[in-house]
Amino acid sequence: MTLFDVPLMVIVSQAVIGIALGMIYVLLALGLSLVFGLLGVVNFAHGSFYMLGACMAFSLVTVTNSFWLCLLFAPLLIGVLGFGAERTLLRPLYARGGDDPMLLTFGLSLVFIEAARLIWGNAALPFETPTLLSGSVKMGMTYLPTYRIFVIVITAVIVGVLWVVLRGTNFGLIVRAGTNDPLMVRALGVDLGNVWSWVFASGCVLAALAGVLAAPMRRVFAEMGLTIIIESFVVVVVGGMGSLSGALVAGLLIGEVASLTALFAPKMADIVIFIVMAVVLMLRPRGLLGEPGLME
Amino acid sequence: MKTLGRRKFLKWLGAAGAGVVMSRSRYGHVAAQTRDTIKIGFVASLTGGFSVFASDAARSAVLAVEQVNAKGGLLGKKVELLVRDDQLNPRVGAQKARELIENDRVQFMGGGLAAHVQMAMNEQTKKANMLFISCSMSDEITAKPDGSRLTFHEGLNPTIVARSIAGWVAQNLGKRWWVLYADYAWGKQLLAGFSRVAEQKGAAVIGSTPYPLGSSDFSGYLPRIQGAKPEVLLVASPGVDTENSLKAITSFGLKKEMKVVHPVLLLSSTKAGGAEAFAGVYAGAGFYWGLKDKIPSAKHYVETYWAKYGQPPDIYGGYGYGSVLEIMRGIELAKSLDSEAVANALRANPTYDHYKGKQWWRTCDNKSFQDQLIVKPRDPGKNEGEWGLFEIISTIKADEAVERTCAEKGWA
Lengths: 296, 412
Fold this sequence. Notes:
A: mainly alpha; 4 strands; B: alpha/beta; Rossmann fold; five-stranded parallel β-sheet; 14 helices; 15 strands; 46% helix; 19% strand
């Protein structure tokens, strides 16, 4: 049985790959969505934190020889960097309002890229799939790599954890309230300053985590964040700025669309995500599940 | 009277002194240009995505000049290499070339790794009637309208690579091919080369997938290929895409079902991608340092480069080395610094061997013909030392028949 000359088996395999691809998009977009939704700052350095996560993982793996250890520690280390950056560089600019914080993150992204070249050199860094997760599962006529299944699972777990933190903890309550009405929250005696640093750091941790997870699948080099930041933006815009469930839905949708396009019209595979974004912006500008605030 | 005289005298002395100093420095400057050194410009993409290859080429060029200077230089003068960074940007490349030509007064030009940058440089050298030997991988540089009697091309080009490799593949790996290629000039030229030879050798390109250059995820293109069950998958993915494509091809199990071939494999990509992604891939390479065991000139190049820089040279290093040595050989032969004389001398004595065996210039289009290698990255754990990543499977001898004829390129 074929559709447009393509066997059904192939289409099914393609759809499954689309889910795997979609979850990668979700992972990339989460950090950006969090920071924009809560801080109102478009973090242009999101891609560089992603890259730093991957590079840091490379260094940690060389030292510890354990993928799992660097999966845990590389994002945390980058989170510390993000915390520091927010505290010292970004915080003073909130008062100025306008686009200054955003411009700073743009500058940071450039600085990080050059710093990465200085630290890790010009050549790309090798990163192998961890042995436990290498190999693949036969799925019809194609093989789905075990590692990609792992990425799907871990992304789902992260989304779940984020949901629980934001809905079920005091910290999450403050964060959500602070987004809705920062003045009122301050009037109620809550110091939002630190909260913002924690949120930004969390965004960086998520970006770095995405980097570590992507390292076995993609080339690790200083500019690796430049393409993903565009993909992340598309997902965030389609899903709705600041909506985590929107990021989930949008990521999966875009992953599926990109995958099926790669099958039927491969030349368009990269452009199609922008077409989706354009359509969504025309029909529903606030994004699929967008509303200022979170999880709505 | 005395005061006036002294003042006048001092003023006069000052003016005269300044005049002497200025004219001497200009004279001295001119002396440096025409008397003391021969200047060769070298513009390469030292920052940006090509930086690894460009530094390989630039360092090799520096080595070449040092070696010639150690033997006494050329025509009684030392050779000076001026290296500039084009930042992988044609506008910057053109600007640097122009500065080298007009301000630094170089007499010859080398470099130009990135195809689009080299074109921009070539426009400058053509305007200045200056000899330019390019290190790029480009079909256009030796054809009309971009080529010229003073534009030489040291590197391999997509047509030669595609047709030579396709011939080898048809003979050794299988007859049903699928081509996954980057959707731009280079990729399309490779597809055209593969398709043409397939017809001639009784093989068939059963399908092709053009992918957008720079794709980070190749998983989407693979099920279709697996469904078609080709015997050979030819992957024309340049630069950054090489690792991403081969990582995906490996993890999705394609290597179990078909042979995978890559037309241009660089040592640095293989090192970065890791043995798992590259194992079992058949690849074309213009050069590999392992040639040092078979070819004396390769031994000399590899050992001197490695001693100086701590690692072996690779394909683009070879182009940088060979191209600059050719400029210098031409100067020696022509006994002149005039670009046309040097170009004519090279065409009159087209055969040379600097680092990989016999090469020669085809006189109608200034194209360098040279051998190519088929290499196979070693399996994980089987590398010979840090850099022994490849096994040389075969050498494809240089053959003018695999390139477009000069008539096809627009030369009479």
